[in-house]
Amino acid sequence: MARIDYDSVAGNYAAARGLTEDGLAGWREALAQYLSGLTRPLVDVGSGAGQFANLFPSWFGIEVIGVEPSEGMRAEAEGARIDPRVHFLAGTAEQLPLPDASCAAAWISTVIHHIADLGAAAKEVRRVLAPGSPVLIRSAFPGRTHGISLFRYFPEAAQVVESFPSIEQVRREFGEAGFALESVQSVPQVSVPNLAAMRPRVALRADTTLLRITDEAFAAGLARLDAAIASGQGDQVPVDYLDLLVLR
């Protein structure tokens, strides 16, 4: 079960958390060695509004099957779909609506903390992947939030990440399903064009970590952000770092 109701935030999701293709250049570079020219589809587990699903065909020439439990998020993804090689299906990480060994890679982006039974999900991912296929997990992990600009203004939100599955837990749960952790890499992204542009996005409060803090902590974070912008930092371009875990 997701930590937030994604049907309720689906309409604001792109405005609050959408990323530009240029801003994701670091991810394109980091993923190219794993995804270029796949001969079977990639399964995007928890594909949300389809941000990456819609980029992967043009980046890597591959077919993508997004699996998403939220009807609202799937509707947003379908509305944004621009390539016939992208498909979206209803389903969960623990019950993927795909045949055995039908996919050449799995992509799990900022969703690992929403998976109720990580061990069951790992076994299900193993079932749908062809032998030797990589699992690529993009996330913030406990103890590794220092590179995320949002948390400079909302330190309480960083504490929410401490309740997420750790890298060690992911390694253990996926290890029991037959995967080995191959690498961990911090990947840069430009989430917003500048600090001033962060303010209206954050105000929509569509991020799991912001929804899980108190209203008082959220208001205090907005005040810190406003103070930084008022002090002349509004034109600064924050660069965020999330981790890429590769298992195989």
Give an overview in words.
This protein is an alpha/beta fold and 248 residues long. 41% of the residues lie in helices and 17% in strands. It has a 7-stranded mixed β-sheet with strand order 3-2-1-4-5-7-6. α9 packs antiparallel against α11. It is globular, with a radius of gyration of 18 Å. The model has no long low-confidence stretch (mean pLDDT 93).
Brief write-up:
With 248 residues, the chain is of the alpha/beta class. The protein has helices at residues 6-17, 25-35, 56-60, 71-80, 118-128, 150-153, 155-161, 167-176, 195-203, 208-211, 215-233; strands at residues 42-45, 64-68, 86-90, 105-109, 135-139, 181-189, 240-247. The two termini are 26 Å apart.
Give the topology, please.
Layout lengths: L5 H12 L7 H11 L6 E4 L10 H5 L3 E5 L2 H10 L5 E5 L14 E5 L8 H11 L6 E5 L10 H4 L1 H7 L5 H10 L4 E9 L5 H9 L4 H4 L3 H19 L6 E8 L1
Parallel strand pairs: 1-2, 1-4, 2-3, 4-5
Antiparallel strand pairs: 5-7, 6-7
